[in-house]
Design a protein that fits this description.
mainly alpha; globular
């Protein structure tokens, strides 16, 4: 049985993010970025692998030219310990 729910800000943000993701995927497919479903699946798997550690970060790095868009690679790199110089 269904239940009614008044969405809060988190619910709306989550659904908005999913909507934008669906639009991005549709655009990429229509523009021919993916030659096959396997290519699309590989791309999505790679993104999922990056999102998991980014969700654990306390500070996120956002794209300068894309407001509201998380830069997964920079966010993760920011939290990794830096390599010590051998010198």
């Amino acid at each position: 049985m269904s239940r009614l729910n008044v969405p809060d800000e988190w619910d709306r943000a989550e659904l908005t993010g999913r909507m934008y993701e669906a639009i991005d995927l549709e655009t990429a497919i229509r523009d021919g970025r993916f030659a096959s479903l396997n290519e699309l699946a590989d791309c999505l798997a790679d993104q999922s692998k990056l999102m998991n550690p980014a969700l654990r970060c306390h500070i996120w790095v956002m794209h300068a030219d894309k407001p509201g868009c998380l830069d997964l690679n920079r966010t993760i790199a920011r939290t990794r310990p830096r390599q010590r110089s051998p010198i």
